Amino acid sequence: MSLLNEILTYNEKFVENNEYRKYETSKLPDKKMVILSCMDTRLVELLPQSMNLRNGDVKIVKNAGALVSHPFGSVMRSILVAVYALQADEVYVIGHHDCGAGKLEPISFLEAVKEQGISEEVIDTIEKSGIDLKSWLKGFDSVEETVQHTTSTIRNHPLFAKHIPVHGLVIDPGTGKLDVIVDGYEYVKEKQNS
């Protein structure tokens, strides 16, 4: 049986048995927050549990590395939608130790792409169009610096309200321990007093 068929078989029973009822909630986050987190498999259940979050409490945006790599990309758009259309009034950027995105190495990544059948010609065409794949695919050295950079990118976005706190945290994917890197409340208070 294929994975898709396995999923669909399970889903049919899930719906028939009304299992969805225990997850019913509204589309608005009860705790009025949006989280940008890494897509790491270790965080799927650990992150919400470590923060005492239940279904319906929060909007969660996930990508490789918990990054806003472009101020007008889909990640930033999702954060703005959560704030302005879905009533989130705090943002949490949560990176994690031992992040695979931080360890990305562009040359080996592109080799893996080629091994999957993408031609050198396609890669050359992308690079000739002005995309620097080696920079785009490069990992990062410090999760703390990446979290600081991402919180700054969000805070300084021209469409982002300056009174909304943007917090930066790092989670240990083994224990769930959270360390604060950027206290968004402190930043907002400093800006209001200056």
From TrEMBL:
Cofactor binding: number and manner: Binds 1 zinc ion per subunit.
Q: Name the Gene Ontology molecular function terms of this record.
A: carbonate dehydratase activity; zinc ion binding
- Supply the InterPro entries for this chain: Carbonic_anhydrase (IPR001765), Carbonic_anhydrase_sf (IPR036874)
Ordered alphabetically, the record's keywords are: Metal-binding, Zinc
Judged by the first EC level, this protein's enzyme class is lyase
Task: Describe the reaction catalysed, as an equation.
Answer: hydrogencarbonate + H(+) = CO2 + H2O
Which cofactors does the annotated protein need, by name? Answer: Zn(2+)
- EC number of the protein: 4.2.1.1
Residue numbers binding Zn(2+): C38, D40, H96, C99
Q: Which Pfam families match?
A: Pro_CA
UniProt similarity note = Belongs to the beta-class carbonic anhydrase family.
Protein name in the entry: carbonic anhydrase
Q: Which organism is it from?
A: Priestia veravalensis
